[in-house]
Design brief:
Largest sheet: 7 strands, antiparallel
Number of domains: 1
CATH superfamily: START domain
Strand order of the largest sheet: 1-7-6-5-4-3-2
Number of helices: 4
Structural class: alpha+beta
Helix content: 25-40%
Distance between the termini: 81 Å
Radius of gyration: 20 Å
Order of helices and strands: HEHHEEEEEEH
CATH architecture: 2-Layer Sandwich
Length: 182
C-alpha cells in the first residue's frame, strides 16, 4: 500500500471519528452566572426592563464595540421592546424582551447572524433581604444535529459565561452606587 493511500485512510478515519464524536456532544448549551448585589430588587429592575439601559452595563455595548449601531423598536420598556444592533465586533443581531415582571425579572430571545443563531435567556432576581438581591442570568440555545455546531457549543458556554459575568459586575457597580446615593 502506498504512503498516499495510508495517509488518506488515516485522514478518513480521523474525520469519521470527529463527526461521530460531534454527534455524541450535547445538542444545546446553557450558560449561567449569579451575583448578590447590595441593592433592593426595585432598584435593579429598571435596568433590566429598559433595553436602552443595557448599553450601560452589559458586555454587548459601545464600550466593548465602539462601532456598534443600536436602534430600538416596539414598546419603550418591558415585554415587546426590541433592540437591534450591528457592529464590527458584535456582528448583527436583535434582542426582544418576551416577559418582564417587576417581582421576578425579564426573559428574552436573542437572534444573531441574520437570525440563524437563536438564544433564549432570563435575568431573574431573588431578594436575600430588603437591601440585598441575588441576580441570576442564564442564556442558552439549541445547536441542532450539525456535529460542527455541537463542537462550537463547547466554546459558546465559556464565551457567554464571560459576557454574563462582566454584565453582572457592571450592573452591580451601577445599582450599588445608586443605592448608596439614596
Amino acid at each position: 500500500m502506498s504512503r498516499t493511500v495510508k495517509f488518506l485512510i488515516v485522514v478518513s478515519i480521523a474525520f469519521s471519528l470527529f463527526l461521530v464524536g460531534g454527534f455524541l456532544l450535547p445538542s444545546h448549551y446553557q450558560a449561567e452566572k449569579e451575583l448578590v448585589m447590595e441593592a433592593a430588587f426595585e432598584d435593579i429592575y429598571p435596568y433590566l426592563t429598559d433595553l436602552k439601559k443595557w448599553n450601560d452595563w452589559t458586555a454587548w455595548s459601545k464600550k466593548e464595540d465602539p462601532s456598534l449601531e443600536i436602534r430600538y423598536e416596539g414598546n419603550e420598556t418591558g415585554a415587546g421592546s426590541k433592540q437591534i444592533w450591528k457592529g464590527n465586533k458584535m456582528g448583527d443581531g436583535e434582542l426582544m424582551l418576551t416577559e418582564s415582571n417587576p417581582g421576578d425579572g425579564v426573559y428574552y430571545v436573542m437572534k444573531m447572524n441574520e437570525g440563524n443563531v437563536e438564544m433564549k435567556g432570563s435575568i431573574v432576581f431573588r431578594p436575600v433581604n430588603p437591601t440585598r438581591t441575588k441576580v441570576l442570568w442564564n442564556m442558552g440555545g439549541e445547536l441542532g444535529n450539525n456535529p460542527i455546531f455541537r463542537y462550537f457549543g463547547l466554546l459558546m458556554e465559556n464565551m457567554v459565561e464571560k459576557d454574563l459575568e462582566l454584565g453582572l459586575k457592571n450592573l452591580k457597580e451601577i445599582v450599588e452606587k445608586q443605592s448608596t446615593q439614596k
